[in-house]
Task: inverse folding
């Protein structure tokens, strides 16, 4: 059963962090043990889970550089079964510092080996690019979950992402599979939303999760309180949809 | 009078491309001659103006590598006074190819010297990062316009962006000034939107444009027709707000 899932899409603002935080929390409320690795120097997933980025140590930078084993970089959250390896802007330096070292793309993969047995799921939040940090996540991962905003520009980027995943499978991680495409910020009042959904389901069929995440202002409010949606407003459509997503992910796992 | 404006924010999905395309078009309808340089490998600004990225040549990659002068890479748009230097995924290779060459951050600045006298404004759309491509844009620019989505995570990233701008001013482009912060995707029904606006205006005062861009579905639809908002739906709140922004930008220029 694959354990490490990268949450990736180079298009910005499509809901990567919102999905990483809330899917991790939903799995944790379903009694799964979950680790969320924040691999974005913006550190949004860290603050979205209430971590104080200015003081939290060690971070994913220390883990990537091999200074600290992953299991020594776990930070607790309000959910018993959810831990996080936080990020801050130190991560920006990692690419330059590792530029000349061999096997720089497999750093995270190696660092997470001891963590695999401790957790049911390890989710990795990626920055909006296909560079060094994202390549580390895709090389460490068993599968990749692609959040896709129901907008035109987001659709445009899917081809490039699929090409990159093919290259990663060829050269760095032949076992990498696609966990699925998750449609986010769906607005039923908006014709464009429906058009994007129809086009993605036509092209990618069963690879697209049944569950869609609706546009829900509560999902935007929760991070300002440092809490996942289940702890901020469990009755919201945002919370319900991420709980559905967790169920769908778990039932797909049993089936495969 | 500064002529080159970089549109930058490392946070993804905040409206950089939507602002670059529609501010450029609004200035062009005000009879200003405008060049939009697409410096994002996603090439969203290019397709947002109807350019076929799979075939358009030369591109911003050719200009950055010095293979083609900027004035030989102009592509016409539906607006007489608006030209674009398009982008495609070739741009991803530029950073690696220029890795060991001196003065790699001033490539765009040098390439745009002959273009300065041909246009009233040159806008540069940046990718969601503070890496090589964005540094080229910030080094070439006279000023930087920062689109800021009315959301919590977008607010978090502002400190990092301000720090980076300080470094660019110290080391690469002492003349760089802040054109202003533009609040985008403002939703008056949403308490979080109002909170973010109040916080940004309190912190940054007169640096924040009076004009705010409302959330308007027509802005999301226009790119799927390859047209700026003025040509897609000139009566929409999206079109009105970008026309206001162009007026405000021009009147600020006269005042300074
Ligand atoms: N379903 C939703 N409904 C409403 N708001 C949402 C939803 N999903 C995400 N958001 C908000 O939209 C913004 C973008 O989402 P998020 O930051 O998760 O995207 P991202 O892909 O991680 O961005 P980046 O590319 O910068 O990493 C955030 O402010 C978030 O709170
Ligand atoms: N004011 C607005 N109202 C509604 N939708 C908008 C608005 N501004 C932008 N959008 C839509 O939101 C999405 C994000 O905007 P856009 O792509 O311009 O952001 P960006 O900062 O350029 O993203 P990236 O970080 O990927 O370059 C796009 O699908 C766009 O069509
Ligand atoms: Mg994110
Ligand atoms: Mg963009």
Result:
């Amino acid at each position: 059963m694959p354990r490490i899932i990268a949450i990736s899409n180079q298009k910005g603002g499509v809901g990567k962090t919102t999905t990483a935080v809330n899917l991790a929390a939903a799995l944790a409320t379903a009694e799964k043990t979950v680790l969320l690795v924040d691999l974005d120097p913006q550190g949004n997933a860290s603050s979205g889970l209430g971590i104080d980025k200015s003081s939290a140590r060690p971070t994913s930078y220390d883990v990537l550089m091999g200074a600290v084993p992953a299991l020594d970089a776990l930070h607790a959250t309000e959910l018993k079964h959810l831990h996080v390896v936080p990020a801050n802007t130190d991560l920006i330096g990692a690419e330059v510092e590792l530029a000349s070292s061999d096997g720089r793309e497999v750093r995270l993969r190696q660092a997470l080996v001891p963590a695999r047995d401790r957790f049911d799921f390890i989710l990795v939040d990626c920055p909006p690019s296909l560079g060094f940090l994202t390549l580390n996540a895709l090389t460490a991962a068993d599968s990749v979950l692609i959040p896709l905003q129901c907008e035109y520009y987001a659709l445009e980027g899917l081809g490039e992402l699929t090409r990159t995943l093919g290259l990663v499978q060829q050269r760095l991680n032949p076992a990498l599979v696609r966990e699925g495409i998750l449609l986010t910020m769906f607005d039923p009042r908006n014709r464009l939303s429906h058009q994007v959904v129809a086009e993605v389901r036509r092209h990618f069929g069963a690879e697209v999760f049944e569950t869609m995440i609706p546009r829900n202002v509560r999902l935007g409010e929760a991070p300002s309180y440092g809490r996942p949606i289940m702890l901020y407003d469990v009755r919201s459509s945002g919370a319900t949809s991420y709980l559905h997503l967790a169920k769908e992910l778990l039932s797909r796992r049993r089936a495969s």
About this structure: Residues 39 and 47 of chain A are 13 Å apart (CA to CA). The radius of gyration of chain A is 17 Å. Chain A touches chain B through 36 residues (CB under 8 Å).
